[in-house]
């Protein structure tokens, strides 16, 4: 009897659940989507506190450790297991013929890793000055988890700070393209006529232009004397110029389909304005698709910024983004000798895959026919 009541209660919850509750139940069953969402949550959490998670200042130069390889974290030494992890020091050797630097572990120097250490000063969220880092070694030692670059700067700290730019530019760019796509697509689909023809011809013109050359031309038009923050928003606007076209076409098609429905006619009879009908009735009727579109559009924005910065037409040093860091890996020789320079590219791949996994899960959860 009790089991029957529990079953009935579950069925009642299913039938009275809202659309968002049904979507969440289906989304939880998509393991890859949950995995992708978890990875993205970790990435964005780290970027918010990137100064705390980094081990040192991103502009600090270690001239004795140029192109130093990543240091391995150890728990064992000749005496056995140690509960506190540690890294060995690096011993540099320069080839007298090729002048190539090689590094080996110096077993005579062992640097324990401590948590909540005091190291280089930074400003948390550019507001609160502090020098506390999640982990690190004492000032006499070095710790390069991802190695160093051509100037001896720690790539682990630089990758964390670069993630803040690359991940946020995707959110800001998609937000702008989402607003443009919804507004222009809504106007085009709802009113039709001359307005629809003009907007659709503009969309066709923008789509017909090759994406990379268009980005290159617009990015090259940015004044070279602009400060990094202006360049950041300039790149974001450039990425949004083309990103809204696909969404606008989908919104137009949906509104052409829905504008003759009974609920739209009822809203007109009730005296609702065109703006209210579009924003409060038509767009929310396929909001689940819009959310999925946002999720799948963010990776394109991130790849766009990375491509522009990699080509030297986007963000420029001293600003750090994954694309800027990848500029050091533009030739085969650098990659062959220093493969850790490709770590930013690995982060880009993981981020794009995570967004795609989550987007697939949202799409399946929002599909009413599954």
Keyphrases for this structure?
MetI-like fold; alpha+beta; two-stranded antiparallel ribbon; 370 residues
Write a brief caption for the model.
The chain has 370 residues and is α+β, with helices and mostly antiparallel strands.
Account of the 3D structure:
The longest helix is centred in the middle third of the chain and has 37 residues, at 155-191. The protein folds into 2 domains: 64-148, no CATH class; 158-366, MetI-like (MetI-like fold). Strand 4 and strand 5 form a beta hairpin. The mean pLDDT is 84. The strands form 2 sheets. The chain has a 3-stranded antiparallel β-sheet with strand order 1-2-3, with no helix packed on it. Strands 4-5 form a two-stranded antiparallel ribbon. With 370 residues, the chain is of the alpha+beta class. It starts with a helix and ends with a helix. It contains 14 helices and 5 strands. The relative contact order is 0.13.
> The CATH topology of the largest domain, please?
MetI-like fold
Order of helices and strands: HHHHEEEEEHHHHHHHHHH
Which shape, going by the Cα principal axes?
elongated
- The value of Rg in angstroms is 26 Å
The largest pleated sheet is described as:
3 strands, antiparallel
Measured by DSSP, the beta-strand proportion falls in 5-15%
Count up the domains. Answer: 2
Distance between the terminal alpha carbons, to the nearest Å? Answer: 32 Å
Numbering strands along the chain, what is their spatial order in the largest sheet? 1-2-3
| Tally of DSSP β-strands | 5
Uncertain segments are: none
Number of helices: 14
The chain-level mean pLDDT equals 84
């Amino acid at each position: 009897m009790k089991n029957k009541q529990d079953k009935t209660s579950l069925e009642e919850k299913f039938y009275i659940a809202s659309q968002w509750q049904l979507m969440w139940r289906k989304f939880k069953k998509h393991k890859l989507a949950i995995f992708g969402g978890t990875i993205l949550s970790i990435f964005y959490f780290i970027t918010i506190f990137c100064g705390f998670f980094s081990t040192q200042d991103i502009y600090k130069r270690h001239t004795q450790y140029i192109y130093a390889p990543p240091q391995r974290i150890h728990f064992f030494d000749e005496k056995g297991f140690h509960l506190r992890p540690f890294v060995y020091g690096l011993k540099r050797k320069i080839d007298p013929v090729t002048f190539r630097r090689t590094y080996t572990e110096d077993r005579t120097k062992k640097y324990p890793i401590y948590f909540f250490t005091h190291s280089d000063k930074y400003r948390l969220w550019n507001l609160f000055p502090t020098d506390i880092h999640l982990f690190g070694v004492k000032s006499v030692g070095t710790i390069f988890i991802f190695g160093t670059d051509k100037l001896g700067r720690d790539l682990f700290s630089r990758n964390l700070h670069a993630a803040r730019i690359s991940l946020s530019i995707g959110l800001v760019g998609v937000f702008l393209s989402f607003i443009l796509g919804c507004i222009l697509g809504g106007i085009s689909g709802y009113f039709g006529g001359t307005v629809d023809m003009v907007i659709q011809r503009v969309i066709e013109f923008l789509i017909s232009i090759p994406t990379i050359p268009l980005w290159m031309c617009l990015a090259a038009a940015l004044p070279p004397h602009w400060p990094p923050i202006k360049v950041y928003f300039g790149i974001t606007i450039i990425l949004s110029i083309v990103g809204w076209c696909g969404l606008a076409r989908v919104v137009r098609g949906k509104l052409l389909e829905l504008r003759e429905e009974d609920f739209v006619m009822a809203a007109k009879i009730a005296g609702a304005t065109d703006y209210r009908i579009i924003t409060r009735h038509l767009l929310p009727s396929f909001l689940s698709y819009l959310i999925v579109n946002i999720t799948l559009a963010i990776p394109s924005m991130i790849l766009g910024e990375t491509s522009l910065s990699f080509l030297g037409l986007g963000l420029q040093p001293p600003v750090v983004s994954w694309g800027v860091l990848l500029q050091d890996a533009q030739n085969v020789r650098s990659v062959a000798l220093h493969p850790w320079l490709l770590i930013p590219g690995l982060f880009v791949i993981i981020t794009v895959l995570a967004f795609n996994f989550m987007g697939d899960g949202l799409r399946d959860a929002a599909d009413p026919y599954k």
